[in-house]
Write a structure and sequence with these properties.
The protein is of the alpha/beta class. It is built from seven helices and nine strands, in the order αββαβαβαββααβαββ. The chain is globular. The N and C termini lie far apart (62 Å).
Length: 233
């Protein structure tokens, strides 16, 4: 009889913190451990926000959908000025961690954390648009069947709610796109992290929901397709 080697809890959970975007974040098993590739997503938003605030007087609204530990929203808040940020998550336990991290970094007054299934709790009427709207999302994107073959340190400890993206891994993004269209919002930018195998399906689905937008997929540092950019023309 061969005994299965027990899974090793990730060091970040054991220590209770991790580093992201040169900042320290508290993490526990309620939240996904932030990955280095997600820093590219933050870069795109920070660069756009700063270009707008330098060149225009437009009010900026950034929506961070599925905030997790709050790493994306907080990193944006720490590296930009004059921007309103709303961060949503469906889990109260997750939002508790995000709020603690915001307080840790002194940006709790810059971010409004909201319990919401994607955009469902957001009732903003953005027509005519009072803000330049940027939507950023790092939603679950692992296809359900692939969860079982993930590294044991991931599948046995990290929350499946933050990993499982449905049958083809793109269910949550479809829901988000549908909600944006239903609300008749016209974001200046939608940026999301995607699975490296998703490029074809991403381009097809994004074009369906946003036919008048420029759509591209950028590679991460490992040269894998990772960042979806949907830009208003």
């Amino acid at each position: 009889m061969t005994l299965q080697k027990p899974s090793k809890k990730p060091d970040q959970y054991t220590q209770g913190f991790t580093e992201f975007y040169k900042l320290k974040f508290m993490v526990n098993e309620s939240v996904l451990i932030p990955r280095p590739e997600t820093e590219l997503l933050v870069d795109n938003v920070v660069n756009l926000v700063n270009s707008f605030t330098r060149n225009q007087k437009t009010s900026l609204l950034v929506l961070d959908i599925g905030t997790g530990s709050g790493n994306i929203a907080i990193s944006i808040a720490k590296n930009t000025n004059n921007v309103k940020i709303i961060a949503t998550d469906i889990s109260p336990k997750v939002l508790k961690v995000a709020k603690l991290n915001a307080k840790l970094h002194g940006v709790e007054k810059k971010i409004n954390f909201l319990k919401s299934n994607l955009l469902s709790a957001l009732n903003y009427t953005l027509s005519p648009i009072p803000y330049t709207l940027i939507i950023v999302a790092n939603l679950p994107y692992i296809p359900t069947q692939r969860i079982t073959i993930l590294d044991s340190s991931v599948k046995d400890f990290e929350p499946h709610l933050a990993l499982d993206g449905g049958k083809d891994g793109f269910d949550l993004y479809r829901q988000l796109f549908a909600q944006i269209r239903e609300k008749k919002w016209k974001p200046t930018l939608i940026v999301g992290e995607i699975d490296h195998t998703h490029k074809k399906i991403v381009l097809k689905e994004a074009k369906k929901y946003f036919p008048n937008y420029q759509i591209e997929v950028k590679k991460d540092l490992a040269k894998k397709d990772r960042i979806l950019l949907i830009k208003h023309l």
